[in-house]
Structures are given as C-alpha cells and as structure tokens.
Amino acid sequence: MVNGNMTLHTDKYQINMMYAHWVNGTQNDKAVFDVYFRRLPFGNGYAVFAGLERIVDYIRSLSFGDEEIAYLAEQEEHYEPAFLDELRRFRFTARMDAVPEGTIVFPNEPLVRVEGRIFETQLIETAVLNFMNYQTLIATKASRIKGVAGDDVLLEFGTRRAQEADAAVWGARAAYIAGFHATSNMLAGMRFGISTKGTHAHAWVQGHDTESEAFDRYAAALPDQVTLLVDTYDTLASGVPNAIRTAKKLEAKGKRMNAIRLDSGDLAFLSKRAREMLDEAGLPYVKIVASNDLDETLIFNLKAQGARIDTWGVGTQLITGGSEPALGGVYKLVAREKDGAYVPVIKISGNPEKVTTPGLKDVYRIVNRQTGKAEADYVALHEEEDVRVGKRIKLFDPVHPYLHKYVEGYEARPLLRPVFEGGELVGDLPTLDEIRAYHAEQLKLFWPEYLRKLNPETYPVDLSEAAWELKMNLLHRYTKQL
Ligand SMILES: Nc1ncnc2c1ncn2[C@@H]1O[C@H](COP(=O)(O)OP(=O)(O)OP(=O)(O)O)[C@@H](O)[C@H]1O
Ligand SMILES: O=P(O)(O)OC[C@H]1O[C@H](OP(=O)(O)OP(=O)(O)O)[C@H](O)[C@@H]1O
Ligand SMILES: O=C(O)c1cccnc1
C-alpha cells in the first residue's frame, strides 16, 4: 500500500496550475469539474461505479506537511515561499457530489462533481481519476464474471498478478462489491471485513514424499477447511483417488472434507469425471473448485460444456482488467466563476465524443412507474425544475437528436448525492456489505438486454433540451470565433 501522506499523489501540472492561479490572484475563484468516462470497457453494457471510499479517505487526509513543502521548494525554484506558505494552510473546503459505490453507470454522465476553489479542485484531479478508474474497471469486470457464474461461489485469487499491492487490495474490494464472495488476500480481509478463503499450493504436495501423505497431513492440520489441490501429478489417476482416501479418513473422525481443486487440464472433462468419482465414493458433499486463468468467457463456456464446478477461483484476468488495462475516465472543467457567477465552459474537439458538456449539471435515472425499470439517464442543468417535479420531458439521443420521445409519469431518481459540503463529509459512508447489497438491487432496475455480456443494447444517456442547447450555443460561439 502507498503509505503516509498522499497529498503529492498528483501530477506536477496540477501544482503548476495552482501556482499560476496564485500568482494571478485567481486561486479562490470557484470552478466546477465533472468526472465521467466516454466508453464502456469489455464491450459491456454498463459499468459498476467504485472508488469513492478511497477518494474520501484521500481528501480527508490532504495536507502539505514539512516534507512535502521541502520537496516542492527543491523541485521548482519559481515556487515562491509565500505560495508554499499558502500550501501549508491548505484545507479542502469544496463540495463534492458523487453516485454511490455499486451504482450501475454509463458513459457521458457525471459520476463525481466537484465544486469549489480552483486551488483545491484542480489538485485532486489525478488521484480522483486514479482511484475511480481502477476500481470501477475491476468492479465492472467482476460484475461480468458474476453475471455468468450465477449462484456459484466466486473467489478472488489475483494478488500475485495484480499491478502491485494497492491494486490487489482495492481490487479485492471492488470484486466483492460486484458479487464475489471471498478473497485470498488477508490484508483486504482484515481491512474491509471481506471473508477470506484459501486452499493450498502445489508446493505443499511437492514438499512431501507422496501426494497422499501431503493430503493427510494437511487434513490433520486444518480438518474443518480441507480443500485439496489434485493436479500436481495426475488428476484422475492419483489426485482424486488420494483425496477420496483422505476424505474417508476425515469421515472416520466425524469431519467432512470441503472440496478438491482443479488447476489445469480440461476443466470440463476433469470436473465431470471427478464428480462421478466423488459421488461413487459416497462423497456427494465434497465440492469442486476450479482455477487456471479463468474469466467470464471461459466460465460461460465451461458451464455450457456441463462442467461440474461449484466454486471458481479467478485471479489474473480479474485483477488486471485482462484485455482492458484501464478505464478512460476524465475530469473536465464545466463551469468557472466570473464576476461572482458561474459561466459554463466547453472543450471542443474534432472528435464529437470528446466535446465536453458545459454547465453545472445533475443526472437523474428515469424509472418507468409501471414496469419499475430504468428507461434512460437524463443529464439536466442544475437549475432545471421540470425533471425534479416530474413534468413531461423530451428524451432524445444527443448524437441523433431526431430520435426522441416524450415521457411523463416517471420517477426521476437523482444519481449524484452530497459527499462533502464545505469540505466536511456529509453523513456516514455505507458499509461494504450495504454497497454490495445496493449493487445487487440496482441490477434489477435494468432490462436484461442492457446487462447481457455479448452485444448489449446501448442504454440511453440523454441531455435535457436546455443542456443540449447550451452545448450547441457554446460550440457555435467558439467555432465562429475560429
Ligand atoms: N473445457 C475447456 N474449455 C475451454 N477452455 C478450457 C477448458 N478447460 C480448461 N480450459 C482453459 O484453457 C486454458 C489452458 O489450460 P491448460 O490446462 O491446457 O494449460 P495450462 O494452463 O498451460 O496447464 P498447466 O497449468 O498444466 O501448465 C486455461 O485458461 C484453462 O482455464
Ligand atoms: O490463474 P489465475 O486466474 O491467475 O488464478 C490464480 C492462480 O494462481 C495460482 O497459480 P500459480 O501462481 O501457482 O501459477 P500457475 O498455476 O499459473 O502455474 C493458482 O493455482 C491459480 O492458477
Ligand atoms: O487458495 C488458493 O487456492 C489460491 C490463492 C491464490 C492464488 N491461487 C490459489
């Protein structure tokens, strides 16, 4: 884990901009930033928002101490002593709103909104994105795996392959949010209260004269949690028969063996055959755990092949994001204070997807009262009343505005909730188990078409007419100036 003061866990350009604001006397001007991502990972139809708890921990501990100040002074001779004194007095006094962890989220909607002095709101960009991008990516991958595993047990085994310690520990938490049952990482277990599970490695078997001696000794040491790894030499010829013998000895002592673990070879064939052998030996209660570079595609295929696997141990492909190593979340300025009031700002790009949506905005989940299902997310300017009071609104696709419909009688659920006000945390954060339960509940809000793993339907994220017009007006203003 990155230990100690994380205040300098930021890009140098943030400190440079803070300095330039300070030099120009604009450091107290207010600014509004939106955090969002533009593209869903893994071809999935949704993402699972995670990372807020770490963001909150980080913000609450922000402070430039002697070591940080001395380092900055040494790094940049232009940083004047009075600027460094200002940093010493730094306190986070801004407002932050965010969607709760575990929320199902979509591209181009604000997930975190930060509003306050530019001096503070600029500093935190890097760390906020770092935490949110990684944890949201892993929670989303875990959710895909959970989606195919159904009620089977899912164990997070990734630590040894994670991109270093923080990723392992926070990744284990993200996986748990999305429905994993336990982790092998003891630090994650201790820190977050996630249940921990473990079998044994090949080294245990290799470290004995015979496989059966290894199994018996392990069972004698931990008789209530015996899961034996059966593939060190030959799964069907020696591993499973030896495990059966050990299970019978345990029965004689009034104990029941938990499981065997398969870690190589054809997992469908081996699990079916091992199941038969265990059943024939009168051990129907002994479960089968499988591991070996598993991901959602393999688990789906193994189930389709009729594999008799009860528990899936998933490591590398989960904790690293597998095919997608990063979520591309961004932190964009959407309004700034001018003459005491907010003015919306825009970032223009040749790529229409990269044009930002200006203004202080809220996002609502529009839920159909008849079906209880979410119809669209609706991004509106903060001052707009219609959606808040349930008036008729126009839902249209911002890329193809002619595709539209009107809705009324809906329920509009605000997604952004206050997290900090005046720099103070608003209320308690939910517990990890509350987050996990909330996430599972959230999934029921969506039609299965949006949740399927392969070629899901695109869930609409719409702009209000006012938000769309503001965007178009600013676009035209700046393109005309060019
Ligand atoms: N029935 C199956 N259908 C599809 N993929 C499978 C099946 N059984 C196993 N796999 C996957 O195939 C990949 C290769 O497994 P395999 O055991 O052949 O090679 P390996 O990992 O090199 O084995 P070992 O650990 O003995 O070196 C793994 O990701 C494994 O999960
Ligand atoms: O396969 P993953 O999803 O990453 O799950 C974790 C892997 O870690 C262990 O293997 P080990 O470190 O001994 O390496 P190996 O089995 O790949 O040789 C375990 O036996 C799993 O195979
Ligand atoms: O407990 C296990 O079987 C385990 C833990 C971490 C990695 N691979 C396997």
Features:
single chain; 482 residues; alpha/beta; nicotinate phosphoribosyltransferase; TIM Barrel; 6-stranded parallel sheet; 21 strands; binds adenosine-5'-triphosphate; binds nicotinic acid; Nic_PRibTrfase-Fam; N/Namide_PRibTrfase; EC 6.3.4.21; nicotinate phosphoribosyltransferase activity; Nicotinate_pribotase-like_C
Give a verbal description of the structure.
This protein has 482 residues and is of the alpha/beta class. The chain folds into 2 domains: 283 residues, nicotinate phosphoribosyltransferase (Alpha-Beta Barrel); 97 residues, TIM Barrel (Alpha-Beta Barrel). It contains 17 helices and 21 strands. The chain has a 7-stranded antiparallel β-sheet with strand order 13-12-1-5-3-19-20. Helix 7 links the parallel strand 6 and strand 7. Helix 6 packs across helix 7. The two termini are 48 Å apart. Bound molecules: adenosine-5'-triphosphate, 1-O-pyrophosphono-5-O-phosphono-alpha-D-ribofuranose and nicotinic acid. 1-O-pyrophosphono-5-O-phosphono-alpha-D-ribofuranose binds next to strand 11 and helix 14.
Question: Would you identify the CATH H-level superfamily of the largest domain?
Answer: nicotinate phosphoribosyltransferase
Termini separation: 48 Å
Q: What low-confidence regions span 5 or more consecutive residues with pLDDT below 50?
A: none
Strand content: 15-25%
**Radius of gyration, CA atoms, in whole angstroms:** 26 Å
